[in-house]
Design a protein that fits this description.
9-stranded mixed β-sheet, 2 domains, alpha/beta, Peroxisomal Thiolase, Chain A, domain 1, binds coenzyme A, Thiolase_C_2, 384 residues, isoprene biosynthesis
């Protein structure tokens, strides 16, 4: 597979009170068109990842909105797969190009989350879990990931201090990213001593509630070559698992992530050793540990070692979440997967400035929906 990345555009992530879902989306769409040096009429098809438009903004039909924003009447649909919506939209865009149905595709992700109370957001996000088995019984997403954290820390040698290092590193990267939600650096004590949310996860182990939009424009290989494109997507895979944790075979891994990674690596003809950096789904600090193991960047039960040895910083051996991840860059749920693709593109183009990974050729994105019921992996490669 060889799908070229023609352009990228992203809004600042955070509490963006002066803009609604439409304006956020339009902003990233125009930025990406400008970056790709394309006019709207050159887009054949649009896919937009969005999870909570209906529950948080009273707005469905985001597909038509994305098309109307550009004054187009082209095929345009909303894609939903919980927090993996953005990556699923990207995968659908790739499938449209591979099938020959489209040559140039715009993929957006957008979410407007901060206009309502935390209670409303928590209820809406819980739609990504199993309502009968989990939501109805009072579980929330911090609660679900706390169950995973307890299971993992009980079995493996992961201390509270090492788990906190995930957030410390992500805030260090976020402080070096112009579009991130949080620019403050943290210490391990800051993480451990912040407000308890769901034991052992404190506020600083949790991704925040975020507004934001991101857009990537992709094309088939021949168009991309003509436009001197540097960055290509060479693998794209999705796998699923049970909605509820109770029905999982194991709480010690997110096996959909593993399966999707293996399939994406096969398509891209790479091994984990060749990966220069990864943007992964750290909705809670423990989720990053699972992600690193799913990607094969550490053996099962051993990801903590990378954090203990500070190997996951942008200038270390295995850079993870150079954007700041969901924790510090922010997590506008439907936009996150597209943001990861944008960070991968920036790194491979050499545009990541203060957090630039040196000589990066291959980057991977890992985006999860729910507590691991959907996982999407993309492989990005610099070809020049
Ligand atoms: N990390 C760092 N700071 C955070 C934060 C986070 N995750 N969440 C909130 N804050 C900060 C706010 O910026 C605010 O700071 P200020 O007082 O300086 O302005 C302060 O903490 C209080 O914010 P508030 O909005 O009142 O927090 P809250 O208690 O309503 O929400 C959580 C905190 C953890 C409940 C919320 O961030 C959350 O639900 N996160 C998880 C989201 C999620 O589940 N996503 C899907 C994952 S699959």
């Amino acid at each position: 597979m060889k799908i070229g990345v023609l352009g990228i555009g992203i809004t600042k992530f955070g509490e963006i009170w002066d803009r609604g879902i439409r304006e956020l989306l339009l902003d990233s769409q125009l930025r990406a068109l400008n970056d790709a040096k394309l006019t709207p009429e050159q887009i054949d098809s649009i896919f937009t990842g969005n999870m909570c438009g209906d529950s948080l903004s009273g707005q469905l039909h985001i597909g038509a909105m994305a098309s109307e924003n550009l004054n187009l009447d082209k095929p345009s649909i909303r894609v939903e797969g919980a927090c993996a919506s953005g990556s699923i939209a990207l995968r659908q865009g790739i499938a449209a190009i591979e099938s020959g149905a489209a040559n140039i595709v715009m993929v957006n992700g957008v979410e407007k989350m901060t206009d309502v109370s935390t209670d409303q957001v928590t209820t809406a996000l819980m739609g990504a879990g199993d309502e009968e088995l989990e939501g109805f019984n009072g579980l929330t997403f911090p609660g679900l990931y706390a169950l995973l954290a307890n299971a993992y820390m009980d079995k493996y040698d992961l201390t509270r201090e090492v788990l906190a290092e995930v957030s410390v590193k992500n805030h260090y990267h976020g402080a070096r990213n112009t579009y991130s939600q949080f620019k403050n650096e943290l210490t391990i004590d800051d993480v451990i001593n912040s407000t308890m949310v769901a034991d052992p996860l404190t506020l600083m182990d949790c991704s925040p509630i975020t507004d934001g939009a991101a857009t990537i424009i992709i094309a088939n290989e021949s168009i991309a070559k003509k436009m001197n494109t540097e960055v290509y997507i060479t693998g794209s895979a999705l796998a699923t698992d049970t909605l509820s944790l109770a029905r999982r075979k194991s709480l010690l891994e997110i096996s959909a992530g593993k399966m999707a990674a293996q399939n994406a690596y096969k398509q891209a003809k790479i091994t984990p050793k060749e990966i220069n950096f990864a943007e992964v789904h750290d909705c809670f600090s423990i989720a990053e540990i699972y992600a690193v193991e799913a990607l094969g960047l550490a053996k099962q039960g051993e990801a903590g070692k990378l954090y203990k040895e500070k190997q996951t910083y942008f200038d270390a051996k295995t850079p993870i979440n150079t954007s700041g991840g969901l924790k510090a860059c922010g997590h506008p749920v439907g936009a996150t997967g597209v943001k990861q693709a944008i960070e991968a593109t920036m790194q491979l183009r050499g545009e990541a400035k203060e957090r630039q990974v040196k000589n990066a050729t291959i980057g991977v994105t890992h985006n999860v929906g729910g507590s691991g019921a959907t996982a999407v992996i993309h492989v990005f490669k610099r070809m020049k």
